[in-house]
Amino acid sequence: MAEALAAGVARLNPRKFQDPWVTANGDRRAQVALRLTDANVPGNAGRYTLAVSGGLGTLIRDGTGRTATSPASSPVTLGPRGFAALYGGLPMATLRAAGLAAGGDRDTDAALDSVFGAQSFLLDYF
Questions:
Q1: Which of 10, 20, 72, 111 is most buried, judging by how many CB atoms fall within 10 Å of its CB?
Q2: pLDDT at residue 126 tops 60
Q3: What percent of the chain has pLDDT over 70?
Q4: Residue 55, domain member (yes or no)
Q5: Residue 124 lies in a domain
Q6: Is residue 125 part of a domain?
Q7: Is 62 in contact with 45 (CB distance < 8 Å)?
Q8: Average pLDDT over the chain, rounded to whole?
Q9: Can you give the pLDDT at residue 28?
Q10: Global confidence as pTM
Q11: How many helices (H) and strands (E) are present in the chain, helices listed first?
């Protein structure tokens, strides 16, 4: 069975499954315009540009909005709960369904899902 699996994997065309947000060496990259809202700490609110490349992410205040890798007509809008959930690995579709994200487009959602996507887990028992 292992031989059949190995033979099947060898026939896969890696270009067919290529993620546009992942480089050839597996580096996840994105540049997305964000608008963060925060009624509890107004100093956190504002426009930002999130840039991820080479395993490092930066969040720069007063982002310009449109970028070459994220030409969305409007920035992705998140409050503190939405931003925390995104950071925790929840997909953008889930955040939108819960009313925790607005703006952006399909490309920005794919970029954010690619760089924040994770398997959720809990280190405690109940």
A1: 111
A2: yes
A3: 64
A4: yes
A5: no
A6: no
A7: no
A8: 77
A9: 72
A10: 0.69
A11: 4, 5
